[in-house]
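Late entry, written up from scratch paper. The run itself happened at the end of the previous shift, but nothing got recorded in the book at the time, so transcribing now.
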Amino acid sequence: MERTSPRTEVRDETLYRFLLRGQGYFKNAFEESLDASAPMQQLVKATVFKTQSGYSDQKFYVLTNLAPVGSFVYLYADAQSRGVYAKVIGPLHDIRLNVPFDLRVSAAALPILGINETGTFSLTLYYWPSSNR
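Output as recorded:
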């Protein structure tokens, strides 16, 4: 009888090195969530929300329905080649103000991402959909 070994996924090292180039307080938590599976990657339409934190401690937060609440995500501004780590703190509620957006990111992340406007901008969101992250 032939033995089969459990299926193991091969990690894309180039992608993982890319995902560890960002800035922010939640980098270690994001790094701990990395595994061999490929992360979800999605181009999103984003805007900001104002918070008191993040400017001095680099604790960035996100409101979205795409990633599980409590998970850590990587937000990448393609045009500026900059990224930050953020924690999903809640859903993006279904109100008229939020309809055109996929996520809201704390305003303190904008200077790190190299984004000057506070209107609408595009980001690439990386996350793992598993709720235990």
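The CA atoms of residues 39 and 113 lie 21 Å apart.
(Scratch paper discarded after transcription.)
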